[in-house]
Amino acid sequence: MATLTHHEVAYASDKKIHYLAAGPVDGPLIFFIHGWPATGITWKPQLDAFAAVGFRAIAPDMPGYGSSTARHVADDYCQEALVEGMMALLADTGRKAAVWVGHDWGSGVTSSVAIQHPETVKALVSICVPYSTIELGWDGFLPLVNRETYPADQYEFGQWDYMKHYEESFEKAVEWFDSDVVGFCKAITTKPASRPERYAPVMMSTVRKNGWLNGLPKPPSVEMTGPSLLADDVYESFAKDMQKTGLWGGSAYYLHHKRNAEYNGSRERKLKQPALFIHATWDLVCDTKSSRLVEPMREACSNLTEVTPDAAHFVQFEKPREVNAALFRFLVQELPSEWPGSLDSEYTKTKSDS
To answer: Where is the AB hydrolase-1 domain (predicted)?
Structure first.
């Protein structure tokens, strides 16, 4: 197991980002950016694996989570503010560019980084949420809903109904999660006992009508769910982090669709750098298998690789070895200069080579 070190970078005069780092400080740089809900420690299988082969692997607690600034200030969680934090994080490493890996809202953030600061992206890896979608506001993903499953007259917002719930009733939406943070953390990281029906509408499509989990008064208690997909020590750290902050900050990422569209919408989105998209077969909310959600990424990326582990939304929790293998193979094949030990890598050149 890699030794994880804790770091903190201050930015914007009154904010901070806490991050975990592993591997040699001069190794090729790779960032792992989590989504909702997670913290940096949930990337531990990736931090261990990449540090072991010589990468400098970094996973921040994103704003709103863990030991990073987690104020109840909605403006902290628009994409513009989040990208500012990511640029401070990159600057703290002393590097000018990195491989960026994002999951869920983390993919939205890494996509925004690629749009706003393409020179900082050596390769882009998006997990479950494709590039050129959620970071563009409602118009970036709502038109791509599978309307055979979600007829517009019955499901105006498709499986994304819960996002509208945040916009209309934010405090009420967050109150439900915060009524049992530990129970929610356990439930969200537990593998379902069975796979859902592939093309049936999901519960997230009726949240405004029925409430979370079809109207449960609070999240399931820890006794009601099976073992977490996370290792015991990682789950305990994650749950403790989430108890500290609650879900307010992390959920406030959903409040800025219009603002995010204005920030990213007019920018060039064609991406020449190598890109990898990791689908998840059983992710029925971020549905990339029966909907057109991945099409904008396919159109925007000139060098795109796609893989599909047989897993649900938290694919990096459920199938960490498969995810790591996909990442390794992608980098070896598409970006060999960023692979430790490559003869073309700046990290292996001796002084006499320079």
So the answer is: 28-144
User: Is the distance from CB of 135 to CB of 264 less than 8 angstroms?
Assistant: yes
Q: CA 69 to CA 108: how far, in whole Å?
A: 19
Report pTM: 0.96
Arithmetic mean of pLDDT over the chain? 95
Domain carrying residue 82 = 5-353
CB 208 within 8 A of CB 170: no
- DSSP classification of residue 3: P
Strands laid side by side in the 98-103 sheet: 5-11, 15-22, 56-60, 29-33, 98-103, 121-127, 275-278, 304-307
Kindly state the DSSP code that residue 52 receives in the 8-state scheme: H
* Omega before residue 130 within 30° of 0, cis: no
pLDDT per position as a tens digit, 221-269 = 999 999 999 999 999 999 999 999 999 999 999 999 999 999 999 999 9
pLDDT confidence of residue 342: 65
Q: Which residues contact 229 (CB under 8 A, 6 or more apart)?
A: 189, 190, 191, 314, 317, 318
Domain count, the chain: 1
For residue 348, the model assigns a pLDDT of 52
Question: Region 154-182: what's the mean pLDDT?
Answer: 98
Cα–Cα distance for residue pair 46/143, rounded to 1 Å: 33
277 and 283 in contact (C-beta within 8 Å)? no
